[in-house]
Amino acid sequence: MKTTKEILLFANEITKLLDIQIGRKKTLEDEYKCDIISLADMLKELDMINKKEIKLKRTLVSQVHVKKNGLPKSIRYDAVRDLWITKISGDIRIHARTEEALLDKILEYYDCHLMSYTIDHIFTLALKHKEDIDICSPLTIQRYKDSYNRFISEEFREKDIRKVDNDSLQSYSKLMTARLHPKKKAFLSYKGVLNLIFDYAEENNYIQNNPVKSINNKKFLMQCDNSKPQSSEKILSLHDIETIYSEINRRNNLPRYQGYFYYGYMVRMAIATGMRAGELCALKWTDIDDNYIHIHAQQLTGRGKGNTANFYVDWTKDEKGISRGGRQFPITDDIAAILDDLKKNQLEKNIISDYVFCKLNGDWIKIGSYHAWLREFMKSINLPVTNNHAFRMSLNSNVFIPNGIPVTDRARLLGHSVETNIKHYSYARIGVDQEIIDRLNGKVAPKLPQNIIDFESTKKKKA
Questions:
Q1: Does pTM top 0.90 for this prediction?
Q2: Pair 425, 229: CB distance under 8 Å
Q3: Hey, what long-range contacts does 7-15 have (CB within 8 A, 24 or more apart)?
Q4: Rounded CA separation 194/169 (Å)
């Protein structure tokens, strides 16, 4: 019997022969359109080509659809039922209306797919290869999938990668940029998907010239949306945060939550610490010290065909798959009050869990559920931004900066670089013109929510 490697090589050779037949079909159709051949001649030759294709598939099936002694299994036509039938194993049979359809089913059963050179197929192979050999998280793989689905059109996915040249790829990129008008970061994600696909094709000799190398980022980035987001599109005002607290208190008293509104606790902690959603979901009671919260883990989601899995990893987003000990966030009076109230509530209700934020039965909160709930919650109180990320940027802009926390400490507490903090987290506060006037007139100090504690005074208390 042939080895898997031998069968794969054989399948690739069959694919090349089938490609020749497909090319010939296209030529015949073009010749007919140009009145070079008659309809009868075209149909006659197309019939011959179809017969050759079936013969090639029969040859490949004979290599994989075999008995224990290595001889091919029988494929028969049942005239009574008008079906092509074969036995796979034991009493398991498969059937189809045509011989070619049955041959395709057999090849699919043995996972012996004929090589396809479409962009879509090469992307699947490239992503699987990256998943197998690279040290990358499921989140990275999912981002490639999301970017591919966003930027690669249905029509472009079906193109033969061997026929995509510099001009056609640049033309597609130009149309895509004009249609979606992406931000710079989004365009670079698109470029990353192209690199993944075409680098893999080049490494495996499917193409000789990599057209992605001809794309000038600078030229396309000029067509992207380069506007800086307004504060109102990214952060919450102090009034917005007070509205959130008020609504959390109201909902906590509703019968449906049984006095245990765990999403409310999560939001309060997010506002007070700027923790990421995955970090909130993965936070354990063993991560709570007397003086600080040890933020060193996150919950990730892996999305496959038909299922979703949530899992715990011992590293944060900025550590990129390699644990470096995480970061410590000092426990302020407000944070201590949140944790004390939550622990007391859980004890009263006999809730036992390793996780700080959990359901009544002790199960951890799934990140997808938290995101979905938060989006609806924020919409219900008519707030402009509806994601957990807004709490991180609001803490930085509304609290850290006005209280004079150095940028190095701001970056450390939020778990990212100084450059990221300055470029992407520092926004002008909303609705504080009167406060600015009063401060310039020397009348009042900045107004902050009551639950926010000055970090410097907290450090002195614990010293």
A1: no
A2: no
A3: 7/63, 7/64, 7/112, 10/60, 10/63, 11/60, 11/112, 11/113, 11/114, 11/115, 12/115, 14/56, 14/57, 14/59, 14/60, 14/114, 15/114, 15/115, 15/116
A4: 10
Q: How confident is the model at residue 406 (pLDDT cuts 50, 70, 90)?
A: very high
Torsion of CA 354, 355, 358, 362, to 10 degrees: -10
Query: What tens digit of pLDDT does each residue of 293-349 get?
Result: 999 999 998 755 445 688 999 999 999 888 899 999 999 999 999 999 999 999 999
Question: Around Cβ 312, how many Cβ atoms within 10 Å?
Answer: 15
Quick check: 290 and 283 in contact, CB under 8 A? no
Cβ atoms within 10 Å of 187's Cβ, excluding its own: 22
pLDDT at position 461: 45
Structure confidence at residue 66 (pLDDT): 85
Phi, psi of 208 (to 5 degrees): -100, -25
Beta-strand ranges (E) seen in 55-187 are: 75-78, 83-89, 92-96
Is the Cβ–Cβ distance between 409 and 274 less than 8 Å? no
Strand positions, DSSP E, 314-449: 327-330
Separation of CA 117 from chain center: 25
Rounded CA gap, 222 and 184, in Å? 9
CA distances from 212 to 74, 198, 202 (A): 47, 7, 11
For the segment 159-169, the average pLDDT, to the nearest whole number, is 93
Residue 94 backbone phi and psi in degrees, to 5 = -125, 155
Are 106 and 61 contacting, i.e. CB atoms less than 8 angstroms apart?
A: yes
Domain boundaries, the chain: 4-109, 119-221, 232-392+452-462
38/28 Cα distance (integer angstroms) = 10
Residue pair 282/312 in contact by the 8 Å Cβ criterion: yes
| CATH, range 232-392+452-462 | 1.10.443.10
What average pLDDT does the structure give for the chain? 86
Report how far residue 29's alpha carbon sits from residue 369's, in angstroms, rounded to the nearest whole number. Answer: 53
Residue 135: HSE in the Cβ half-sphere, 13 Å Cα cutoff: 4
| 3-class secondary-structure state, position 168 | helix
In terms of residues, how long is the chain? Answer: 463
Cα angle 424, 430, 434 (rounded to 5 degrees) comes to 140
Pick the CATH number of 119-221 from 1.10.150, 3.30.1300, 1.20.58, 1.10.1040: 1.10.150
Quote the DSSP letter at residue 363: P
